[in-house]
Write a structure and sequence with these properties.
Blueprint: E1 3-9, E2 12-18, H1 23-30, H2 37-40, H3 45-65, E3 73-75, E4 81-83, E5 89-95, E6 98-104, E7 109-115, H4 140-157, E8 168-173, E9 176-181, E10 187-196, E11 199-206
Antiparallel strand pairs: 1-2, 2-6, 3-4, 5-6, 7-11, 8-9, 9-10, 10-11
Keywords: Transferase
InterPro entries: 4-PPantetheinyl_Trfase_dom (IPR008278), 4-PPantetheinyl_Trfase_dom_sf (IPR037143), P-Pant_transferase_sf (IPR050559)
Protein name: 4'-phosphopantetheinyl transferase domain-containing protein
């Protein structure tokens, strides 16, 4: 299993996995116990591989890195994933042959990974505000990170109906990258930027008052 990045950012643990296995090899790694209807009903092989790889990476993170029991993954009514019989918080992401998972014992989290391409420029007006582009810049990598950051914040929030260029904001406060997400009452989050080759990675976790 080619885990290509394993990190701890403050109290959030996360891993990135590059999928090189066949579908049959992933089935063997996942085990029949964890094969769900969600996987069986997916018609595209690449999507089945992504779903299985996310679960295998999550089990690796929980059992091998954190040394905690793993009983499986479920999703709430909004599609937000959670660990069975855990009060902790997780998030998952996939982009073609890359998947990522993260875990925080107390704070809600979100993670996203995307490959940077020039196509991001065609839709940047739908998700990024002009004042947000000064945080880093407006090249393909920066724009892709802004998208990843807002996707991570969307996953952290865990509810539908958010407008990316209205209800999800990015800002830099004393060199600390932060996010605001929500409608009537906005959550404040920390944001972390990373990359692997031509992929941008965003990690978000909620700020709790001490």
């Amino acid at each position: 299993m080619p885990i290509i990045k394993e990190e701890k950012t403050q109290d959030t643990y996360w891993v990135i996995w590059h999928i090189t296995e066949t579908e049959e090899a992933l089935v063997d790694l996942l085990g029949e116990f964890h094969l769900s209807k969600e996987y069986i009903n997916v018609k595209t092989a690449s999507h089945r591989k992504q779903k299985m790889a996310c679960r295998i990476a999550l089990r690796y993170l929980i059992e091998e890195v954190l040394m905690l029991p793993y009983e499986g993954l479920e999703k709430d009514t909004y599609g937000k994933p959670y660990l069975i019989n855990h009060t902790s918080h997780i998030s998952i992401t996939h982009s073609k042959d890359m998947v990522g998972v993260c875990y925080n014992p107390k704070q809600t989290v979100g993670i996203d990974i995307e490959r940077a391409t020039p196509r991001i420029r065609k839709v940047q007006h739908k998700f990024v505000l002009p004042e947000e582009t000064v945080i880093y810049g407006e090249n393909d990598e920066d724009l892709t990170f802004y998208w990843c950051a807002k996707e991570a914040l969307y996953k952290l929030y865990g509810k539908e109906g958010l407008i990316f260029n209205k209800d999800i904001r990015l800002l830099k406060d004393e060199q600390q990258l932060k996010g605001l997400v929500g409608k009537e009452e906005m959550l404040t989050t920390h944001l972390h930027r990373d990359r692997i080759d031509d992929h941008q990675i965003a990690l978000a976790w909620e700020v709790h008052d001490v």
